[in-house]
């Protein structure tokens, strides 16, 4: 069975694939100081609760945007799964062309999303990933990564409002009933929520204006579900985009070995 580890700046996803489907998924707060042994204790307990054991995991793939964590995640695979993991950006062949000025600067998460989107949807794509940052990436019809846009994430923007302005409270992100808020909380919620909708719609329109053919827009990430039904600019909401990309990379590298 395959253990896929997808680590973002805020959360880390551990997912198990049995060869046919994803049978378990767990999330943990990203902590770059967590050791391989600590990961193993946490993971073994969750596997046990799901009726699984560490010994059934014989493959591992890692995608991380936190370089200082990769050492411990790699040791988790080596010590406890007894396998050498595929690490995006190191020993994993992606099988796509990266058409940007400095290909080494493309984040692992963005490349994995590009692959996950390409295997599921046709034509040129815009892939939106809403996390700590909100990224808008262009995937060509042949699957090549063409570059994109990086903007602050919605949670980051809300936290910045609270931190930088003494009188603004920390509030939950949700869709307000009205655009014009009648108090501080609803005014902040409206500014962030509808401001992000405007950001999404505006950037999608500008990206499409630079492209010479119709494009399909796919959104993923923990915050993307907030926008479902709030804009017609997004064609598909796909929460499994990243792990689908990781599974495809695993298959491509397995064929080469």
TrEMBL record:
Q: Which cofactor does it need?
A: NH4(+); K(+)
Which residues are responsible for catalysis?
109 (proton acceptor)
Pathway named in the protein's UniProt entry? Cofactor biosynthesis; coenzyme A biosynthesis; CoA from (R)-pantothenate: step 1/5
Q: Which residues are recorded as binding substrate? A: 107-110, 184
Q: What is its EC number?
A: 2.7.1.33
Q: Which UniProt keywords apply?
A: ATP-binding, Coenzyme A biosynthesis, Cytoplasm, Kinase, Metal-binding, Nucleotide-binding, Potassium, Transferase
Q: Where in the cell is it found?
A: Cytoplasm
Query: Carries keyword ATP-binding?
Result: yes
Q: Which SUPFAM superfamilies does the record cross-reference, listed alphabetically?
A: Actin-like ATPase domain
- For this protein, what reaction is catalysed? (R)-pantothenate + ATP = (R)-4'-phosphopantothenate + ADP + H(+)
Q: Which domain of life is it from?
A: Bacteria
CDD domains in the cross-refs = ASKHA_NBD_PanK-III
Chain residues that bind K(+): 129
Task: Quote the record's cofactor note.
Answer: A monovalent cation. Ammonium or potassium.
Tell me the enzyme class: transferase
Give the residues the record marks as binding ATP.
6-13, 132
What binding partners and quaternary form does the record give? Homodimer.
| Its biological purpose | Catalyzes the phosphorylation of pantothenate (Pan), the first step in CoA biosynthesis.
Protein name according to UniProt: Type III pantothenate kinase
| Annotated gene | coaX
